[in-house]
Amino acid sequence: MTAVLLDAPQVRRVRRPPRLLTQNTELREENIWNWTIPALATRLWDGRVVKTCPAAGVCAQACYARNGTYNFPGVVQRHQQNLAYVLDNPAGWQRQMAAELAHPRHRGGWIRIHDAGDFFSDRYLSMWLRLIAFRPAVNFYAYTKEVSRFRRLVEPAPPRNFRWVFSYGGNEDHLIRPGDRVADVFPDEAAILSAGYHSQDASDLLAVLGPAPVGIPANNIPQFKRRMGGRSFRQWQAERDARRRGR
């Protein structure tokens, strides 16, 4: 059955990660597994520079996945290894991911696609859509700023076991429509309630299963909070877009 997933031969030799799905501290508490790649952009060991969040806007200036443990050399290396595997051996990556998703622990459970990074190309998103369809007993969800890519590739025929939320703070905020499920990052819980949003702080799954619109409290990282200046990502991005239009 794995032949269904194959779409390209291996083009480079790449070291195969021992395990693709992992659990960070927060998601482990809810038994959610996740897949991750570098945030925003990275330079691989062979010199290639890859933008992993091509639609990123102001979020790049306050990204939790570019701070703290994400900058540890071992973590950076592992995330780059994941990305190189996708790029250089997509068939092998799909086979390994499909095999891991077949484990009984994932049946009826949830996989968060991207603890860091985003659906950086049509090909990459299409590979995920095939995997999601191939494992209907597993539930998948993601935050994304790739609004136009999802309009073209996901919304016409979304898999029943895939949920997503458009997160504000990207260069495609203007493409978000009324009725879309959205998430915004706020300075704190009080700002979330004041804006009429619903906090997902109690559970990451509330982003896709709870009431909407979804509010995310900013991580307590002083330099990032200073940059936000009391604004939400949506407000911050709107201000930047307005300045650009005024030039």
Overview of the molecule:
With 247 residues, this protein is α/β, with parallel strands linked by helices. The protein has one domain (20-245). Helices cover 33% and strands 15% of the residues. It has helices spanning 25-28, 73-88, 90-101, 122-134, 147-153, 189-194, 206-209, 222-228, 233-245; strands at 33-35, 41-43, 49-51, 110-113, 139-144, 162-167, 182-186, 198-199, 214-217. Strands 1-4-5-6-7-9-8 form a seven-stranded parallel sheet. A two-stranded antiparallel ribbon has the order 2-3. Helix 2 (73-88) packs across helix 3 (90-101). It is globular, with a radius of gyration of 18 Å. The relative contact order is 0.14. The model is unreliable at 1-11 (pLDDT under 50).
Question: What is the radius of gyration?
Answer: 18 Å
How many DSSP helices? 9
Report the helical percentage. Answer: 25-40%
Number of domains: 1
The backbone outline, from C-alpha atoms, is: globular
Number of strands: 9
- How many strands, what sense, and barrel or not for the largest sheet? 7 strands, parallel
| SSE order, one letter for each helix or strand | HEEEHHEHEHEEHEHEHH
Strand order of the largest sheet: 1-4-5-6-7-9-8
Uncertain stretches of 5 or more adjacent residues: 1-11
Distance between the termini: 54 Å
Instruction: Give average pLDDT, whole number.
Output: 92
Classification by helices and strands? alpha/beta
What portion of the residues fall into strands of 2 or more residues? Answer: 5-15%
